[in-house]
Fold:
Amino acid sequence: MCVVCGCADNGDGAAKTHDHAHGHDHDHGHVHVDPKQGDLHFGAGAARVSVPGMSQARTVKLEADILGENRRIAQQNRRHFEAHGVTALNLLSSPGSGKTTLLCATIEALKRRAPGMDVAVIEGDQQTSFDADRIRATGAPAIQVNTGKGCHLDAPMVAEAFGQLHSHDHHHGHGQAPGSLLFIENVGNLVCPALWDLGEAAKVVVLSVTEGEDKPLKYPDMFAAAELMVLNKVDLLPHLRFDVQRCIDMARRVNPTLEVLQLSATTGEGMDAWLDWLLAWTRPENDSQAALRARVAALESELAQARAALEG
Structure:
């Protein structure tokens, strides 16, 4: 898990494990062996992860310390966003799911649907500014955050990036108008980013139909942490063996309250329901009302798709 593998190191070496090279602090009690096939499950212990040279107890302690500090800064981010009238949404997915294409299409659609809304983007990748450049081409401000060897964004990174939006004197994404949206496009990874609170109002996991419908069960932490699953690239369904209902059923086995929207960022199919969901989160209401409106929008979209399938 990235919490203890070193990519969350804050410079003092606290997150590294190399100081236990002798292995005397290592235990094997957390490994589950399937008696029939011999398959190994290293997530069966208390820490739900195996770290060479580190006991389960020490791993749990280290993870709690690191994530605790991250949560403290995430809460500061949350207060900062709220003070500026910003709704921050954390977009998560594997690489190639179409997050950036979806964001570009969303920004253009919001210009027509909600022309007074301020939208900004924080882009997370290991290297390059390709995605931030694509966002900037739409006219929306974007700050690129390159994580190097890191596999996720964390709350301190987001805090600094949000500060950069201010220092560049952008008139978007930091509360110049009520109902501002800040999209945080996380590093493409269906594992580590699920753990990290960035101060967002909601996590949105984007799953493309080209990835296979079993991903929610293979990567359950991500889907358990999300409020919404966007099933993207549905225009490709005629060319694939992808069972949409099976995918939704698997996702809701992990997270029974997960909302689901089906859309194509390329053709525009389903975009209206996506915009409804977004705008529900930006209304000046309490969180429960916003969540309820978003849930209604998602259910209405599912009902319309079911009716279309029956009529077809």
User: Anything to note?
Assistant: The longest helix spans residues 56-83.
